[in-house]
């Protein structure tokens, strides 16, 4: 086990899941053949409701035991040593949860103590993280009186208090107004920018992932259906273009379709063309010349996360 | 530079292992102490101790012998402590104390969905329950074991001799631990059943009179005294009589009563364990 941990630390693997399967008792199979390895950084787990994101987080925290397969966090087996795994994780749950009777400082310090911090250190650190998340004015108010946005910040502070190596965020912007959402994402970006903490960010909001993550893993029906680097998505793959030709486009479009391109009608007399890998964009000029229809418009379409998500989920369905 | 401008700052300490239950215990005790009416409930629980202490004082002072005929229980140490641990007033206020301090210990966590916060920490189910149990048992233990041991000490001080025999001393420890264990397990059991603290309090409060009613009714209908084994208030003095070697109140073996109480306590503990496991999975 120690060898596995040191190997994991050496190669920078924070999370390794191998053929994980999980079925709820008398329920459906939620995860199946789930394999995933994540290095250091900020990752988005994206998927529609019921995709298995929350179940995956529960497995990582040891609330549930995988039916098949095995996994580790920083080289620590999630099934065999859940407490050791949790020492390394800070979890921000989606649900509206709190421990009544505490003010903000006492609540955060209490959870720090439960993580193993000495009491005095936990209190000092609670002040720091509450300040960091912007709750300095309300830290002595009872947590029951906090608004939704304040509770989200409080949960983030509680997840950070023991300075975990991996932060698991389950829908952190859920229920927030636009300002609150922006501020929450700014906090996550700040944590990510410093590169000291690794973050796995579960959400169904694509823009949240685009704004904060380095890489996105798309889940559907308990399986990984796609994995993309956000940077690559931003640069565009060049496989989707809008084109326009002079005159009747039919011969040109027929030639494109003959070479495996998918054509759909766009706006302003333009067409959206999805090119197969073996057909480079430059080849469109040749096809247009051959068809006697010079190109008047050609523009690559940025392959957004939304497209990638819809394509991945659509293909898997 | 303020922390926010500095951005996220790392903590340079080392996390300890295994002390989670103590954190829960201390937080629970602090929370009970801070509650409204806490001092009143604690004072009410202190009254039996004060009464029995006064009785002890009277019994050991020859000049106050004129009052001793009022204190029938002073005939022996065993009778004295049996009475201290099995009188109805103590039971009532001990129950109130358990409800007051413990009804919301798990129910409150259920109501506020706190399980996910606890169990996302390096905290096992065992540590969580030990912490909750210690919190609910702390004050009852003060008024049973603490008060019992103080009475032993005061008896020695008043009489100037070795206070009590070893079996009685063992009985004081055994009885107080047993009573506290049972009450605390019962409180956590009901607390784990519902998120509604009021319902939990009512159920816990009613369990003694309800079992008493069922036991008495069954005995009246059948004429068989063994049906009183269904009554928790009847079983406690029976076990007390066994521990302090006192005359039995009911014509059945005190070991049967002990088995009933131990079985019920185990059932309480088992259900609490199972419930928290289910709740962990459901978080």
Which short descriptors sum up this protein?
A: 317 residues, 6-stranded mixed sheet, 4-stranded antiparallel sheet, elongated, B: 283 residues, mainly alpha, 0% strand
Count of separate DSSP helical elements of chain B: 12
Order of helices and strands of chain B: HHHHHHHHHHHH
Using the CA coordinates, give the radius of gyration of chain A.
24 Å
Structural class assignment of chain A: alpha/beta
Major sheet details of chain A: 6 strands, mixed
Q: Reading side by side through the largest sheet of chain A, how are the strands ordered?
A: 6-7-8-3-9-10
Number of strands of chain B: 0
The percentage of residues in β strands of chain A lies in 25-35%
Low-confidence stretches of chain B: none
Largest sheet composition of chain B: none
Gross geometry of chain B? globular
Greatest contact between two chains: A-B, 42 and 37 residues
First-to-last CA distance of chain A: 39 Å
Count every helix of chain A, treating DSSP H or I runs of 4 or more residues as helices: 12
Give the DSSP E fraction of chain B (strand runs of 2 or more residues): under 5%
Helix content, binned percent of chain A:
25-40%
Shape of chain A: elongated
Q: What do the pLDDT scores of chain A average to?
A: 85
Mean pLDDT of chain B: 88
The unreliable regions of chain A are none
Describe the structure.
The complex is a heterodimer of chains A (317) and B (283). Chain A is of the alpha/beta class and 317 residues long. Chain A has helices spanning 2-10, 53-61, 82-87, 104-114, 119-132, 148-160, 178-194, 206-212, 230-235, 250-258, 283-291, 305-316, and strands at residues 15-23, 29-38, 42-46, 68-73, 76-77, 89-92, 166-170, 198-203, 215-220, 223-229, 240-245, 262-265, 271-274, 295-300. In chain A, a hairpin with a 2-residue loop joins strand 9 (215-220) and strand 10 (223-229). In chain A, helix 4 (104-114) crosses helix 5 (119-132), helix 4 (104-114) runs parallel beside helix 6 and helix 10 packs across helix 11. Chain A starts with a helix and ends with a helix. The mean pLDDT of chain A is 85. Chain B contains twelve helices and no strands. The longest helix of chain B has 35 residues, at 125-159. The two termini of chain B are 39 Å apart. The mean pLDDT of chain B is 88. The A-B interface holds A 58, 61, 63-64, 83-84, 86-87, 89, 91, 93, 95-101, 110-111, 113-118, 121, 125, 128, 131-132, 134, 158, 160, 162-163, 190-191, 193-194, 196-197 and B 2-4, 7-11, 13, 15-17, 19-20, 23-24, 27, 31, 108-109, 111-124, 280-281, 283.
């Amino acid at each position: 086990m120690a060898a596995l941990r040191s190997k994991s630390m050496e190669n920078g693997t924070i999370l390794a899941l191998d053929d994980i399967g999980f079925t709820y008792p008398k329920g459906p199979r939620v995860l199946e053949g789930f394999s995933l390895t994540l290095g250091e950084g900020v990752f988005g787990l994206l998927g529609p409701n019921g995709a298995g994101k929350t179940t995956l987080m529960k497995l990582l925290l040891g609330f549930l035991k995988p039916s098949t397969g095995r996994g580790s966090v920083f080289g620590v087996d999630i099934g065999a040593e859940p407490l050791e795994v949790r020492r390394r994780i800070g979890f921000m749950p989606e649900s509206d949860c709190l421990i009544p009777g505490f003010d903000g400082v006492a609540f955060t310090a209490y959870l720090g103590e439960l993580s193993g911090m000495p009491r005095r250190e936990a209190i000092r650190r609670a002040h720091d993280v509450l300040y960091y998340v912007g709750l300095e004015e309300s830290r002595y108010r009872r947590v029951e009186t906090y608004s939704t946005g304040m509770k989200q910040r409080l949960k983030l502070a509680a997840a950070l208090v023991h300075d975990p190596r991996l932060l698991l965020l389950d829908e952190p912007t859920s229920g927030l107004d636009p300002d609150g959402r922006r501020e929450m994402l700014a906090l996550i970006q700040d944590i990510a920018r410093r590169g000291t903490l690794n973050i796995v960010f579960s959400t169904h909001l694509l823009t949240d992932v685009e704004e904060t993550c380095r890489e996105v893993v798309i889940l559907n029906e308990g399986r990984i259906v796609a994995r993309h680097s956000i940077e690559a998505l931003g640069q565009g793959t060049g496989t989707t273009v809008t084109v326009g030709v002079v005159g009747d486009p039919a011969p040109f479009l027929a030639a494109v379709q003959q070479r495996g391109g998918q054509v759909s009608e766009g706006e302003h007399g333009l067409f959206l063309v999805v090119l197969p890998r073996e057909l480079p964009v430059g080849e469109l000029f040749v096809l247009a010349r051959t068809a006697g229809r010079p190109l008047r418009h050609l523009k690559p379409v940025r392959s957004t996360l939304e497209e990638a998500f819809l394509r991945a989920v659509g293909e898997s369905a | 530079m303020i922390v926010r401008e500095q951005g996220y700052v790392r903590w340079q300490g080392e996390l300890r292992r295994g002390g989670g239950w103590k954190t829960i215990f201390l937080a629970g005790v602090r929370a009970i102490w801070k509650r409204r009416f806490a001092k009143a409930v604690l004072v009410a629980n202190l009254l039996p101790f004060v009464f029995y202490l006064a009785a002890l004082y009277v019994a050991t002072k020859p000049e106050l012998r004129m009052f001793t005929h009022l204190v029938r229980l002073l005939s022996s140490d065993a009778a004295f402590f049996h009475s201290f641990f099995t009188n109805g007033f103590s039971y009532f206020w001990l129950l109130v104390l358990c409800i007051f301090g413990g009804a919301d210990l798990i129910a409150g966590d259920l109501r506020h969905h706190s399980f996910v916060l606890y169990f996302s920490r390096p905290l096992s189910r065992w540590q969580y329950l030990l912490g909750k149990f210690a919190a609910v048992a702390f004050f009852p233990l003060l008024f049973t074991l603490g008060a019992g041991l103080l009475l032993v000490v005061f008896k020695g001080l008043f009489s100037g001799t070795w206070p009590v025999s070893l079996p009685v001393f063992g009985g004081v420890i055994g009885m107080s631990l047993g009573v506290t264990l049972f009450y605390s397990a019962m409180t956590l059991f009901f607390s784990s059943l519902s998120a509604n603290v009021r319902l939990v309090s009512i159920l816990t409060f009613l369990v003694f009179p309800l079992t008493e009613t069922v036991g008495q009714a069954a005995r009246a209908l059948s004429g068989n005294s063994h049906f009183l084994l269904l009554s928790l208030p009847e079983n406690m003095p029976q076990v007390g009589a066994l521990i302090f070697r006192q005359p039995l109140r009911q014509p059945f073996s005190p070991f049967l009563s002990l088995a009933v109480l131990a079985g019920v306590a185990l059932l309480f503990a088992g259900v609490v364990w199972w419930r928290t496991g289910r709740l962990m999975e459901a978080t």
